[in-house]
Structure formats: C-alpha cells, structure tokens
Amino acid sequence: MNSAGGLQQLRRAAAPVVVLVALTLPFWGVQSGASRDIVIDTFIFMMATIAWNIIGGFGGQVSFGHSIFFGVGAYCTVLLFAHQAINTYLALLLGCVVAAATGAALGAITLRLHGIYFSLASFSLTLTLALLATHFVSVTGGSIGESVPFLHNAPAQFQFENRLWYYYLGLGGVVVFALVAWWVYRSRLGFFLRALRDDEPAARACGVPVRFAKIIALVLSAALTAVAGGFYVQSVGFIDPDSAFGQTTAVQIALLSFVGGVGTLWGPVVGAAIFIPLQQTLGGTFDISPGLNLIIYGALVLLVISIEPRGLVYLFASDGRLRRQFIRRKTIRNLGDARDVTVAPDATRSVADDTTGKAVEDSETFAADTVDDIQRLAASAQAQPARALGPTLLSLHEVSVQFGGLRAVDAVSLEVATGELFGIIGPNGAGKTTLFNTIAGAQGPTAGHITLSGQRISRRPPERVARRGVGRTFQNVRLFPRMTVRENLIVAAATGAGLAEARRRAAEILDLLELGEVADRRPRELPLATQKLTEIGRALALRPNLLLLDEMMSGLNEVEMGRLLQAIKRLNDNGLTIVVIEHVLRVIFDLTTRVAVLDHGALIAQGAPDDVMSQQHVVEAYLGKRAVKALDHD
Amino acid sequence: MTVFLQVLVTGVLLGGLYGLFSSGLTLVFGITRVVNFAHGDFVTLGMYAAAVFSIDTHGSPLWMLVPVAIVMLVLGFLLYRLVLDRTISRPGLVAEDAQTSQMVLTLAISILIANGLLLAYGPESKSARPTLTATYHLGGVVITQSRLVAFVLACVTFAGLYLVLDRSRFGKAVRATVDDREMAMIVGISTRSIYTWTFGVGIMLAGVTGVVFATFYPVTPATGQSFLITAFVTVVLGGLGSVSGAFVAGLVVGVIQQATATYLSLDLQNVGIFALFVLVLLLRPQGLLARRALV
Q1: Distance CA A384, CA A409 (A)
Q2: Contact B183, B192 (CB under 8 A)
C-alpha cells in the first residue's frame, strides 16, 4: 500500500514538474535554433496525438488518418489567409470548423460499423485528400505546396520573428490540450467512451448512446487536430500534400500515442517527447542516408510494442511489466485470504471452464436427477406468500424472431406484472436468450411487438430500451474489462444522471450488494460469482423498472447460488420486477411465482412452477420422449 | 464505345492482380483479425525481386515466381511467430489491445520495408526488362501480352487458393477456425499454426502478385502505399474476410480505376475507387457479395 501511495504522489507531482522543466528549458537546455525547432515540432505533434487519443485511445476507434484534420487545419489556415486575406487566427478557427465537419461526416458513415471500417476509411480518405491536393494546383499549389506569405513579424497574423514565441505558444497548446483530454477522460463522455471501447453491446445495454458519443469524440478530436495543423503551418511557414495528408503524417499521429501508451493521459505526451526528437535528430543532425533514420524509427516502434503492446507508460501500470512481479505476489496472498473467508476454491475457475464443463453431462443420470428434483421440489415448495401485483409492466404480443430458416422465437405472447418475479425456462436452444435480446432491443423481432408500461419498446435500439428502464445481464458475463467494478456501475448510472449523482448511486449499489471491498478491482481479478453480482449491480444502476437476468446460476457453487438467490429475492421484495432465465430448477421453484416454458421458440406452458413442471409435455420437452418412457418403465 | 471496351478490358486484366493480393489481405484479416498495413509493401518486395533479377540477369521476371513465393511464405511465418504472435500470447492482455498492437506492428514493418528499399535502391523507379511485349488487337481493343499473362496467372493462383481453402484438410481447419476459434481448438486444431500459415500464405500472395506486376509496372519504394489503399477498398467491397468476394471486387476496382483514369484524370484514379469505397460503406457495408463465408 505504501509504494502505491508513493506512486500516487509521484504521479500528482509529475505534471507540474514536467511543465516547469519545459518552461525553463530554453534557458539551460535548448539554446540552438535547430534544437528549439525540434522541441516546437515535438509540441505540435504532441498536440495532434493528444487529440487523436480522445477518439483513438479513450474511445478505441483507431484512426490511421488523423492527418485528414491536421492537413485540413494547415491548408485552411494558409489558403484563407493567402488567397482570401482572412485573419490567420480566424482562418485557423474556420479550419477547425471544416475539420470538425469532415470528422462528423466520416464518423456518420463509418462509426456505425465495426471500428475496423473507421480505420480503413480514415486511412484511405487521407491518401485521397493527398491526391486531390496534388491535383488541384490552382487551389493548393499542387505538389510543390503553399507557403505562408512572409510578413517578418506580425503577431496579429500568427507570425513571430522570435521563435521563442512558437515555443511558448506550443507549450501552452500542449497544456491546454492535455487539460481538455483530462477533462474528457473524467467526464460522462469519457466514461461512455471507455465503456464502448471495452464492450460495445454491453455499453448499449447500459444505455450508453454509443454512436453519439463516438461522433462527439471524433468531432472534438478533429477540431483539436486541426489546431495543431494550423500551428504547424505557421511555424514551418509551408505545407505540401505529403506533409499534410501523406502516409507518414497519418501514421505518425497514431503511432506516437501507441508507443507512448494508448488511451492514457500521459501516453501521447511520452510518445511524442521521445519519438519526435529522436526522428528529427536522426533525420536532420546526423548526415545519414535517406531511409536509415526511418528504419531506426520503425525498429524502435517494433521494439517498444514487442516489449509492452500497450505502449511505454503501461510499463508502470498495475499490470505492466515492471510491476507485474509485485502484483503476482500480492494476488497470491489475497487469493489465500479470500479462500479462507468466503469463496470456495472452485469459484475461481475461469468462465470458459464453466461453460464447457456444463455441456457434457451424462444424459441418463441427468434425466433421473432432474425428475427427482422436480418431484422433491414440487412437494416442498410452499405456496409463495401472495403479494399484490401491480398492473402489467411488460407485455409481448405474438413476438417472432426468424434467423434465415430458423424460427428462434415463434409467436410468443406473455405478460409480466409489476412486482412479479417471472421465470423463463426451456431446454437448450429453446430461444430463451433470443427472447431476452429481443426484449432488450439487441435483436429486432421479425413480427409482433413488445410494450413496457404500455409504451412500445420493440424495434428501438438497445440503449433506448435500457434508458426506458430495462436492465439486463448477459449469459456470459460482459463487464467492461478495463474498468473497475465501481466504474462499471458509474457508466450505467451516468446514462440517466449527471456524473456526481452517478457516483453516489454507484456507491449506494456497491453498499447494497456488499461489493465495497472489490470496488476498485477490475472484473477479471474477481471470482465469477462476484462478477455476476457486479453485472446485476450495473443493471441496477440504470434504475430499471424491469430486470432481465440470464442464467445467473450457471457456473456457481451452492454457497454462491444461495447468496445470489438472496440478493435477487431482496431486490424483488423491494418491488423490482424481475424476469429470469434459469436452468437450475431449485432457483425457479424458490424464486418465481410464475414461469413460461419455451421449446423450439414456442411458448408451450405458462403458470405456477409446480403446475407447469408436472405437465407431461413440459417434461418431455426437457428430457426427450425416450428418457421419459425409460423412467416410466422403471 | 471502343474506349469503354478498352477501359473494361484493361480494368479487368489489372483487376485480377488487385483481386489476388486483396484476397491475401482479407484472408489474413478473416482469420487473425489483423489488418496488415504492410501488405502493400510485400507486393513491392516481390516487384523489386523480379525487377532486380530481370535487370541483372536479363531473364524474364517471371522466373522469380517460385523463389519469391517460397521466401515470402517463410518470411510470413517468421514475422508472425517472432513479431506478431508475441502480443497475442501475452498473458492478461485484452484481445482488442492485442489486435490493435498487432496493427501497429504491421505499420512498423511497413516503415521498415519501404525505407529498407529506399536505402538499398534509392527513390528512383525501377522497371524489369520488357518481356511479353506482343500486343493483340480485337476490334479496336488493344491487349498487351504481359497484362494478359498477368491476368491468367492471377486467375490460376487464385483458383489454387480457392481449391486449397475449399477442399483440403488445411482449408477445413482454416474455415473452422474462422467460424469458432475456441471450438476449433477443442477439436484439436492448432489455431496458432493456422494463424501462422495464413499469415504466410497471405504474404506469399502479395509477393507473387508483385512478381507478376513487375512485368509491366515500374516500382519505387513507395509503390506499396497506393496498393494498400486499393487493397483496403477491395476487401471492404468484397465483404471483409471473404476471399472470393475480394477477388471479384478486385475486378470491379480495376475497372473503376481505369474508368476514372480515362474519363477524369490519370492522377485521380484512386479518387475514383475511394468514391466507390464511400458508396459501399453507405449502402452495403457487408460487401457486394453478401456472403459471410471465407471462400
């Protein structure tokens, strides 16, 4: 704990120290004109890559064409001034607007698709712009480029005779950009971006407006990158298609963040601070053959990424190389502790083990056990205390889902009342999860419609359904792996409230579900049962009217099941309507007042659990006719 | 009309080669989920090998087909095992992080190849000695022998790839891996060696295409760049991850490029295919041939 605290302090002091060093650098370090220009270039690309990191790092939408915005900023700044006599600062601002609009258009086309399309499209667009800028000589000066009309010293037009001005303006720019990035990171937008980067379907199920968040981030990132481009052209005095839109610039902006540490606040700063001076020194100061400098550059990128795929600053992260040894020791100790207190050893098995293990069970014994269970449980199940149920909350009208030739859900109609705890059961492949996906909006029904409190929710995107009050969990836990338990909850809470309120709500839920101890751990470090509880918590953070729980009990042991059962009961007792899909029949009998049985997509029975489970065709659907016959003969 | 026919013929003949190297790119993406930013540079490598060989020995550049294929296959193996695989097998790394860092690694490889060639051969363009120089006239349409041979070679190579993927045990294992990686592992397929092989084969296709290109196309260290954008458009047009889609899309891209070059301006030929790219993304992002299968 001590060393972590020390590191925390070090981290807090880092930014002011670095800025102080940069402020005084011209007086003791960087004194020659050439070295000062290298630092100015470093600042410019640092700005660009900090801006890139907002969409590429935080949002995980990797652009290999941020030179689009860099070049647009540069060209607008110089062309509007040179040809239209517009004030340079105003021209720079207009450049931002054009870049932002370009970003919005590019985002609207590509960001609804998988991230890879954005990468490919951005890269292709920037090379296309390079071709266009070369072709239209009369506008852009063609391949020769366009120079900034030289005014000797004109601060009003962003031209300074003393290059220290560029130095300090560049430094100021970096500080402002870093503050913007820091603010975004900590804002609701930042939470949304990190969530959708980690798991987009899960983010949507939490109500995160994913497309909107991506486009806003891209527009912001584009506008900032354009500022860096405008700054560049004023500092260098000249722009050509290749240095504006070419592959080198395109790749450069992204690479700096990658080698520094993608998605972190310090990564872009570190990446630019090391790699730009390196590249420029190799290219300019030493007189080496063309090509060799970039070979060294490429080789270093290769080396860094091979050592730490996420970039340099991750070397110091809690799971980075340098601290992994330390963590390993700590984790082993913690695991030991945890085992003593609550968690049974097999709870730490991975999810993969659980799901594959379950499938291979001897069908005969399974059949016998299940029938035993049913009879025993039906006998012991006491009548649930009758509780006044409210009006209908969820209702499905003839809902069908067709996948090609397969009818996964077949004209299902059912109603769930407010305050009810409703179960959906059925053999594997009966369409239960598809039905959940359809209710939650992740899957559009091919026919029929669904209403929540009388309002139609079918054929709405999942994030809208979530914000209407449908919270859900997934069959295979889908938490945001790179966020802590607390942050996982904050994401969902923040879709309906401000961040401060979301934090409060997350804290409440952590309390309610007794997750306080693991609040700042990442899901992967936790036992499956805790992950599942966190997923329930995340759904609760939406303040749902309806909670959909998909096979919560799979892979859990008796003790964990008991705990989870209690938690679910408590939520229902507090008035929350819950629908569960469950294979563990004890849970169905213990929890639910009513169940629906699905088989081959169709609803084959509905009613009180013990009634339903004693119906011949339900047992047959579950066990197959042969198994039932075999049992009858016994 | 003759001009149009000429555009069509030239475009299709060139498009065969686009289809061939794009099928390599889409194969690698379909299986390893890595977008290989160095793919165009492997085409360049093949072109240099053929051009330099033909200049030095006065032989036909096509002699280099088999040597380049073998060297590229081995190079692909080595690159995958020694460089790319390291990020996947890193414990505790989220899959998306591993994939993005693999893309960055291919970018670095691209920088290394392009600048290595610059260092070795300088920025001037190199051309193989003219071979297959005969021309055929078909009702006003001119077909050069080298392009015709290139197209035939592309078709033959692609047919070989298709048969391997469709019929062989290896092909079945590859398709199983695409469908469900974990399941493939469970039934005993070594997905790591599948990844290694597909990466090798993908690069081999790029290298082979390069050798064929060299018969009629000059090469500079930066040639790979323009091929890369062509390949990107082609694989998206064909449906990301679909090998036969990529080949057919290559023909379309070839024609569109020729049409833009002829009717608009030669230096804007890639703007034409970018416009096509945007159209596809808007209207049919799953690709022209809406098949999700690998072959």
Answers
A1: 30
A2: no
Residue A185 structure tokens: 């990171």
pLDDT digits (tens, 9 = 90+) for A260-279: 999 999 999 999 999 999 88
User: Nearest chain B Cα to A352, which residue?
Assistant: B182
Q: What does the alpha-carbon distance between residue A347 and residue A339 come to, in Å, rounded to a whole number?
A: 9
The answer to whether B209 touches B156, Cβ cutoff 8 Å, is no
Do strands A594-599 and B135-138 pair parallel, antiparallel, or not at all (unpaired)?
A: unpaired
Whether this model's pTM surpasses 0.90: no
Q: Kindly list the residues from chain A whose CB atom is less than 8 angstroms away from the CB atom of residue B35.
A: 116, 119-120
- Helical pair A363-380 and A625-633, crossing angle rounded to 10 deg: 70
Q: Please report the sign of the dihedral spanned by the C-alpha atoms of residue A384, residue A388, residue A393, residue A395.
A: positive
* Burial bucket for residue B123 (CB in 10 Å: 0-12, 13-18, 19+): exposed
Beta-carbon count within 10 A of A37 CB: 18
Average the pLDDT over B35-56 and give the result.
95
d(CA A445, CA A464): 16
Q: Which residue has the tokens 């995107």?
A: A461
DSSP for A270-284, written as a single string: HHHHHHHHHHHIIII
φ, ψ for residue B292, nearest 5 deg? -90, -5
What was the ipTM of the complex prediction? 0.91
CA distance A46 to A48: 5
A264 contacts in chain B (CB < 8 Å): none
Give me the residue spans of the domains in chain A.
30-261, 389-633
Query: Residue A406 is inside which H or E element, if any?
Result: strand A406-417
Instruction: Please name the member of B107, B123, B281 whose beta carbon is closest to the beta carbon of A121.
Output: B281
Q: Is A335 exposed, middle or buried (0-12, 13-18, 19+ CB in 10 A)?
A: middle
Question: Each residue of A219-268: pLDDT tens digit?
Answer: 999 999 999 999 999 999 999 999 999 988 999 999 999 999 999 999 99
Chain A positions in Cβ-Cβ contact with residue B29 (cut-off 8 Å): 116
Please say whether the structural domain A389-633 has been given the CATH code 2.40.10.120.
no
Could you give the 3-state DSSP secondary structure of residue A452?
strand
pLDDT tens per residue, range B167-177:
999 999 998 88
Where are the extended beta strands (E) located within A226-322? 238-239
The single-letter DSSP state of residue A162 is S
Q: Do A124 and B277 touch (CB under 8 A)?
A: yes
Element (H, E) at A547: strand A546-550
User: Can you tell me the distance from the alpha carbon of A70 to that of A45, in angstroms, rounded to the nearest whole number?
Assistant: 10
Taking CB atoms and an 8 Å cut-off, how many pairs form between chains A and B?
A: 134
- Decide: helix, strand or coil at residue B36: coil
Q: Which of A53, A110, A128, A480 should one mutate to test binding to chain B, selecting the residue with the greatest count of B CBs within 10 A?
A: A128
The reply to whether residue A131 touches residue B267, judged by beta carbons under 8 angstroms, is yes
Q: How far is A115 from chain B (nearest CA, A)?
A: 11
* CB < 8 Å to A291, chain B: 115-119, 221
